[in-house]
Write the structure tokens for this entry.
Amino acid sequence: MCLAIPMCITAVDGFNARCEARGIYRDVSLFMLQDEPPEIGDFVMVSVGQAVRKVTPEEASLSWEMYDLILAETPNT
């Protein structure tokens, strides 16, 4: 199973982007989104360093709400 994290694009350089989520920045490949190139301010779902699809800000927010609920229910071990 794969997990993708919603991130906001803060800079674009060709097929690479700098993305941010909750104060964490990562360099992400945009190669898989060549047909619909994202721009600064767009949200993308990131899995293993690859942007796999664009999402709306609302979808990104909902994803984080779901992740927070899952983490709140997960016991610390």
About this structure: The mean pLDDT is 93. Residues 63 and 69 are 10 Å apart (CA to CA).
